[in-house]
């Protein structure tokens, strides 16, 4: 009898949620169809007995893409919080395969404060910004043949509030921390999770960078053995009286200072090497009167065209026609150089140009007056980090029937794969499959109970996890 009651309660709860969704969503909504087919994999959050509210629009065309979109796109807002005063913007793309059978994924970009649109056009989505043919005015899209939407439906969610097109009705609701953001995102709790190069424990993640740097031949054996001995394997919490350890850490810092830590194969564009110049002053032979120039045989112009820009206005030979023109800030400076730099190449700023165009906002049905300027990553949010390690959360999840995939790009030194591997081992899970090379994840067998799979991904110029 108890079993039958449980089944009936389960059915009634599903029916109730479906009816709620139908009342909030257009009956032609691809997202609603997917939710129905997946038997409501998403769980609606009840915030003080108030159901989250929804609004959505089906988007068939986008500025920058010629013709109708070859996939189903829906955009809208999910209103959450105690008074439904936080409005999280989402892009939903229905699976191009079999949406009734394929999984439904929720994508959150890190930061905090980076828009999920970044994941859509720079990482796993069906569109790519065409940097190769950008004319400096308005960017166009190309299709991504390796999009994850080939095999899954994806919700790209702008969270926490203040990210992308997400907004709040009052200033107080923009003040958020790790736990409040997680509560808002609870609307999208599902049957498993996928995280890439995840910041999990500041100690594990940062401490692993030394070993990682040595594994990739960025540190010599001699220096690595010395720092390991002098610092006793602890590189985050340093004894200020341990002079040999501090000396070794200083040497390591110098070795790694000019690397792009997120992708060590890419140049650190903020670093201007002395060898980038075709000419340099001959300081060794300066007579105190007038300097001479000498040719630099290691100039970057041996292999690349270079633009040296005097900016902002007032720097070098740059000038303005009037006094007001010399008054500016970071945003004005960025605006001044948009048309100059973007003509040549700027990978991320193309998304800023696209998302701040009024035609785009109309196509996406962004509510007018809710967002003055869209930023790919909003670094001015009133966000407080209060969770310094999510390890206990992973440990708790290991006692659930969820399935997890954790992947690490093996050339990311911000969150090294070696540190991720160590905290996974600390969970004390039973190993049912040994370390091996992988080329496709399609044949993974289904299992009962918690299952965590850890994979490293070989570095590529443009990372593609499905290829």
Automatic annotation (TrEMBL):
Annotated keywords: Membrane, Transmembrane, Transmembrane helix
InterPro entries for this protein: AB_hydrolase_fold (IPR029058), Peptidase_S10 (IPR001563)
Membrane-spanning intervals of the chain: 31-54
Domain of life: Eukaryota
Annotated GO biological process: proteolysis; secondary metabolic process
GO molecular function annotations of the record: acyltransferase activity, transferring groups other than amino-acyl groups; serine-type carboxypeptidase activity
Similarity comment: family membership: Belongs to the peptidase S10 family.
Official protein name in the record: Uncharacterized protein
């Amino acid at each position: 009898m108890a079993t039958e009651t449980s089944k009936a309660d389960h059915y009634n709860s599903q029916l109730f949620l479906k009816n709620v969704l139908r009342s909030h969503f257009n009956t032609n909504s691809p997202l609603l169809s997917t939710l129905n087919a997946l038997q409501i994999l998403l769980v609606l959050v009840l915030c003080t007995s108030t159901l989250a509210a929804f609004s959505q629009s089906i988007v068939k065309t986008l500025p920058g893409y010629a013709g109708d979109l070859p996939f189903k796109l829906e955009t809208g807002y999910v209103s959450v919080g105690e008074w439904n005063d936080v409005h999280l913007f989402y892009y939903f793309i229905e699976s191009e395969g079999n949406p009734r059978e394929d999984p439904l994924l929720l994508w959150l970009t890190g930061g905090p404060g980076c828009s999920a649109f970044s994941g859509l056009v720079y990482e796993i989505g069906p569109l790519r910004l065409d940097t190769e043919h950008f004319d400096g005015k308005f960017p166009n899209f190309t299709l991504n043949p390796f999009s994850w939407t080939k095999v899954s439906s994806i919700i790209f969610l702008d969270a926490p509030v203040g990210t992308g097109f997400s907004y709040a009705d009052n200033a107080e609701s923009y003040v958020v921390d790790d736990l409040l953001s997680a509560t808002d995102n609870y609307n999208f709790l599902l049957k498993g999770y996928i995280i890439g190069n995840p910041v999990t424990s500041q100690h594990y993640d940062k401490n692993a960078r030394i070993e990682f740097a040595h594994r990739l031949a960025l540190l010599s054996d001699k220096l690595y053995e010395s720092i390991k001995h002098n610092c006793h394997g602890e590189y985050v919490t340093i004894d200020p009286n341990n002079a040999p350890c501090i000396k070794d850490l200083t040497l390591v810092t110098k070795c790694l200072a000019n690397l792009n830590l997120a992708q060590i194969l890419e140049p650190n564009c903020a670093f201007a090497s002395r060898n980038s110049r075709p000419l340099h002053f001959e300081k060794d032979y300066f007579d105190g009167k007038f300097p001479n120039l000498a040719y630099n045989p290691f100039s970057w112009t041996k292999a690349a065209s270079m633009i040296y820009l005097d900016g902002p206005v007032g720097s070098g030979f740059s000038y303005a026609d009037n006094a007001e023109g010399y008054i500016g800030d970071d945003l004005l400076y960025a605006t001044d150089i948009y048309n100059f730099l973007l003509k040549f190449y700027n990978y991320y700023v193309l998304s800023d140009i696209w998302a701040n165009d009024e035609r785009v906002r109309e196509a996406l049905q962004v509510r007018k007056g809710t967002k003055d300027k869209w930023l790919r990553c909003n670094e001015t949010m009133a966000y407080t980090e209060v969770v310094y390690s999510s390890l206990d959360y992973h440990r708790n999840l290991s006692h659930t029937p969820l399935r997890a995939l954790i992947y690490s790009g093996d050339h990311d030194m911000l969150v090294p794969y070696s540190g991720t591997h160590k905290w996974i081992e600390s969970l004390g899970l039973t190993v049912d499959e040994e370390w091996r090379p992988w080329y496709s994840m399609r044949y993974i067998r289904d299992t009962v109970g918690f299952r965590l799979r850890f994979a490293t991904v070989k570095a590529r110029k443009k990372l593609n996890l499905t290829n």
